[in-house]
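Batch manifest, entry 17 of 40.
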Amino acid sequence: MTILPFLAGERSLGWHPQATGVIAGLRLSTTPVAIWQALLEVIALRLAWIARQLETAGFLLDSTEIIVSGGVSASPVFATMLCQALGRPICVIPTEASARGVALWVSLGLRLLTIDRCPLPAGSWFEPDAATHARYRERLERHRATCLAMAESWSATLSDQL
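Output type: structure tokens
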């Protein structure tokens, strides 16, 4: 099953405000749990897609530690999915990471701190498994192909509105 979670348009990786949601591969035998799992997986896959673009641009190095916090990341099930989709270890911390990250980034940029003086808060680490990561890479490619197939209809929809 492939889900495009664009109930209010696509908000990253293309910014198609006219994009619509899709559940591809839905069958009578599909259970609510399978739909819920696919919804969680698509969040992880979209984040992995963003990470891949950051890696390609040189902004996400192999040595970069991935720290997540808040919302669905508190779920060990989702944290495992995200770790496997990224193919790299992640640390889930119980405190808000965004404000801390910005403060550290500014402090490092102003040379008020050095990287060795920015310890990680205590958290739970999740390690990827190569075989599972390979399956997530296949899912990401299927997701990307579905997005690309739908992009033409999104453009047509936009043209119809002009």
